[in-house]
Write a structure and sequence with these properties.
single chain; 326 residues; alpha/beta; Membrane-bound Lytic Murein Transglycosylase D, Chain A; TIM Barrel; six-stranded parallel beta sheet; three-stranded parallel beta sheet; 11 helices; disordered N terminus
Amino acid sequence: MRFSTPRKVLAIGAVFLLLAGFAVLVPGATKTGPPVATAESLIPRLRAAGLVREGYPGTVAYTVKQGDTLYSIAARFKTSVATVSALNGIADPTKIKTGWTLYVPDVPAPPPTGPSVVVRNGDRTSDAVALTFDMGGRLDPALDIVNWLVAHNIRATIFPTGAVLDSTATNVARQVLAVVNSRPDLFEIGNHSYDHPDFTTISAAAMKQQLATTEAAVARVSSMTMKPRFRPPFGAYDTAVLEAVGAAGYAITVMWDVDTIDWRPESDGGPTRQQIVDKVLNNARGGSIVLMHLGGYNTFEALPSIVAGLRARGYEPGTVSDVLAD
């Protein structure tokens, strides 16, 4: 993916440049004399003169930062993952590295309209494990969980529903999102629909409405963006769902490879605190995405042992973007 020598593209197609008393042939020009230097060797002076740029015409160089994913970079530059991949020769969009230089369009392009890409885990060579929390319905331990994450500087991805944020019965969800919004260094968010319908049973127009109303609910209490992350209610999706949410700007459909089933109380056969801990520690691998709930039963009690156990195994808790960036 990385090139030993970046491709250099001359901004002026047919021009003769005299440097150091010699004629240097610029691509597109007609040869009038023997060149004594290559454009490559004169790049520093050409760049200083404003006659050369990096990458393809119409692109700019972008250095990948911690937490970036190809999906978030594409969204930032209003382009598609396919476009960025093609510009940079990337075969696997889940595998980019912090510090890489990527070329991206420097002019606004239409939002990506391709189908959303399903992600169940990130790079298996990563030392990060994504902790993800859905928020909707039961909220009893939600504020305790996010405050604990903040107190211990633990990164995580939160997927709220819009309805829980608009609830008039409780202010807890709005308080949670306020905490999340105050710590963008720790948290990112994704769209989990407005009122949690099975997306495979509703129309494309209804899906678009679900996503848009959730965006509006989030915008009332947070400055963070949920795009490009979508988590389908019940984990249910099909081709039509991926096409609809992709067209709405959600390039990633975030699933999971470790499910704690913490939404089910012990009285209904749900897991104990220790069973949640064991489920995560026995199944998490590099790049894993762990599904939990801010209203989960025994989730808050299990978190300290989950974090300690992951670190003891050489993994660091992180966000979805963290496991996709490594």
